[in-house]
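Meet my pick.
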Amino acid sequence: MKVINDITSKYADKGVSLSFSILEDELVLIQGSKVSLEFLGNLLLTLASSSDESSVQLSPRGAGKHFFDDQSKLGLYLNKVEPT
């Protein structure tokens, strides 16, 4: 089973460049190339299927910064919530 580190390692040198911005009060714009959106999709799928990991955080100013466009001011925090 893949883990988050497998995905980040696989895409580390592929030119991922995500950008997150707020368009309006209720809209978030996520922009990226084909490979960038593929990375994000695989990150989501890996987190969803993982039995060991429940969250992942990437920041344009911290861990994971090389996955963001230089102008991106927003990061990403994904949290898997199990049904109760």
